[in-house]
Amino acid sequence: MQIRKVAGALGAEISGVDLSKGVSRDLAAELRGALNDHLVIFLRDQDLNARQFLDFATAMGEPIEYPFVKGIDGYPTIIEVKKLEDERSNFGGIWHSDTTYLQVPPMGSMLLSREIPPYGGDTMFANQQLAYEALSDTMKRLLEGLKGINSSAKADVSRTREDRIRTDGKDTKVEDLVALHPIVRTHPESGRKSLYVNIAHTVGIDGMTNDESAPLLEFLFRHQVKPEFTCRFVWTPNALAFWDNRSAQHNPVNDYHGFRRVMQRITLKGDVPR
Predict the structure, then answer these.
(1) Are 231 and 40 contacting, i.e. CB atoms less than 8 angstroms apart?
(2) Phi and psi at residue 232, to the nearest 5°
(3) Would you give per-residue pLDDT tens digits along the chain (274 residues)?
(4) Which domains does the chain have, with CATH numbers?
(5) Cα 73–265–224 angle (5° rounding)?
(6) CA distances from 46 to 17, 125, 216, 273 (A)
(7) Which is catalytic among the residues 164, 181, 185, 250?
(8) Any residues with CB less than 8 A from the CB of 49 and at least 6 apart, and which?
């Protein structure tokens, strides 16, 4: 297995690995180590069927269902993330960490490219450990102990889900979900601190009025995605990205109108942020 960093902030491409042959315990440990070091890892040329994709996910953690969109036939934990030729909004097309409105948000997510446009559709990632470490000591003290209010109903990201809920939504209605999480969380494996708010889901700060919390959150939303904290992945056929939701955000770039982009995603169970 070879590891090549793709940017100074985060991200590494893994080569010399064929996931279709299965994942041994040793290989799984190596890949989890690379994920902890780089927060997002990329593996190209992984021609996996749904069963092989799920087997890889199971070797990395515990796959869970997405609350709003049903899985593909026979695989409830694999959802399609797609934008069709006639659609203008892409799924999750805003900076975010996945489903932070859950009481137990996911450890990680993985995306496998099935159909990609001739250009565009890259995904950007941002290192929230670096974003936290770049704050002043005064700001770090201010944020310590504060909890963000995260909601599934925030308008900006809800609009990007509308097409998928209309075509692939679950039969049972899911109510709006709300969860409080520390604005600064500690990674349970590395012990490093990171910012844990995001513009897609964080709607306020517990114990503050909207007028009080809005300026602070607006600053954090701008700060946490500065270019020096990011990397950008250009998709190719059968490419797989696996990122740590606890310390990284992502943003799929919506710059391929008129073309189809179809991916498959699996989300892995996490822990209560602390």
Answers:
(1) yes
(2) -135, 130
(3) 999 999 999 999 999 999 999 999 999 999 999 999 999 999 999 999 999 999 999 999 999 999 888 999 999 999 999 999 999 999 889 999 999 999 999 999 999 999 999 999 999 999 999 999 999 999 999 999 999 999 998 755 545 544 444 555 555 556 789 999 999 999 999 999 999 999 999 999 999 999 999 999 999 999 999 999 999 999 999 999 999 999 999 999 999 999 999 999 999 999 999 9
(4) 2-268 (3.60.130.10)
(5) 155
(6) 9, 21, 42, 32
(7) 250
(8) none
pLDDT digits (tens, 9 = 90+) for 202-249: 999 999 999 999 999 999 999 999 999 999 999 999 999 999 999 999
Give the list of residues 6+ apart from residue 160 with CB closer than 8 angstroms, or none: 89, 90, 91, 92, 93, 94
- List 96, 181, 185, 201, catalytic entry: 96
**Could you say which DSSP state residue 69 is in?**
B
Catalytic residue (choose from 38, 98, 163, 187): 98
3-state secondary structure 156-206: HHHHHHHHHHHHHECCCCCCCCEEEEECEEECCCCCCEEECCCCCCEEEEC
| 182 contacts 147 by C-beta, under 8 angstroms | yes
Q: Which of 38, 164, 187, 265 is catalytic?
A: 265
The verdict on whether 250 is a catalytic residue reads yes
Q: Which amino acid, residue 267?
A: T
Neighbours of 161 (CB within 10 A): 17
98 is catalytic: yes
**Run of H or E residues at 30:** helix 25-38
Structure token pair of residue 1: 């297995």
pLDDT of residue 71: 96
